[in-house]
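Record format v2
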Amino acid sequence: MAQQDKAKIGLIGLGTMGSALALNIAEKGFPIAVWNRRSDATRTFHAEAGDLAERVIPTESYEELVAAIEKPRAIILMVPAGAPVDEQIAALRPLLDADDMIIDAGNANFHDTNRRVRELDDVSFLGIGVSGGEAGARHGPAIMGGGEKELWDRVSPILEAISAKFKGEPCAAWMGREGAGHFVKAVHNGIEYADMQMIAEVYGVMRDGLGMKADAIGDAFARFNEGALQSYLIEISSIVTKAADKHTGEPMIDLILDKAGQKGTGRWTAIEAQHLAAPIPAIEAAVVARNLSSRVAARREGEELFGAAPMQIPESTVSDEMLERALIAGKVLCYAQGFDMIAAASEQFGWALPLPEIAKVWREGCIIRSAMLDDMAAALAEDEDRNLMLAPVFARYLREGHVALRELVALGARYGHPMPALSSGLSYFDTMRTARGTANMIQAQRDYFGEHGFERIDGIEDEHGPWHGHGV
Ligand code: 6PG
């Protein structure tokens, strides 16, 4: 095969995401060689590629795949995170040259990506976070790149071409060295969890507190989507609440078991936040809420024993506007936490993560895309070190919204509606606007029992209390 007939790039793994990404790449004019563990899937994919089939080179062995790609080669892995990635790397390594590149585009744990970047000395490795689900992969995902910048620059023309565009700007950028791309993707997913959980909590108030039917709830979300909350997640929340089940004609949402799945990215974010001592309580609460949701049997027993928690809320105490404002405040707070964590990692890992660029990449294509992200990009460009909740535009949302959030959380407490994410968002807000908190008590206790010492507020140099020496 002549060099000009070769593929510009290769792809391994023709599952839902891999197939969509491969078609996207072919559609943007880049010939692509594909390989799948099951050759029949490769043949079916090629046969069903329609007009794009002429830019797809189906291959049935690693050797064939490698031979089909232009040098220096780039091969995308779109396989489940973890061991399958290491298996593919092990199979490819002996066939590749030092300047060839393996690109892991799955939802890898960034620690694995760090390890792979360090371990692989005979081949280049790039870890990229891809967001947007199947439709995003097919028509334009958000792409967060991590690894050596020269490697990113080599493939960025392809990745930018296939990415989503915000007002013509590609939503694909290099985030930093090693696992930086996968780290940013994990935080994206953490924010995704918190955003989804807050929406679910407001849904619960409408369903159980106000007794609204699914269709009416869908209408409320559709209204929210016309204002500051305009986002993909609010839009799909409206769609899924309004959809009817094809078997029964009932609202589909009412027939779905209340047990949330998770593949792990949100959990990784929560774990990493603890390592970084980065406060992301709303994101952690959202992970906990998913874990709790899976305790179905225990929750049923609890309801039998104590009676169902969510009671009706007097209609006069809740308005559409209040729910919307509370959600706006909650949303700002969970993004503020996510960016704060990114800033902490940037410093700790020496990555110099480009915060405004991250907000820009998230403006289109990804699951958390929302109208607010453009303002976030601008606020971060103005001052990267400032917590987003302190930036004027978001401080205004919070000034307007925290009262609604407070009222909603208070109603939740009074009428038994669990609101783990919204209430921890509120606590975060209140903590972050309390100059004199209560950790002096923690410090006094620590000093009493462990002589740990403390800082004084009055400049006197004495780091122990009068109880010094009396601790047990
Ligand atoms: C995205 C999504 C995507 C996927 C997650 C969901 O950005 O496109 O986040 O990566 O839907 O794996 O994760 P859970 O299964 O943990 O909800």
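Residues 186-432 form a domain with the N-(1-d-carboxylethyl)-l-norvaline Dehydrogenase; domain 2 fold (CATH 1.10.1040.10).
Residues 107, 131-133, 189, 192, 261-263, 265-266, 366-367 surround 6-phosphogluconic acid (CB under 6 Å).
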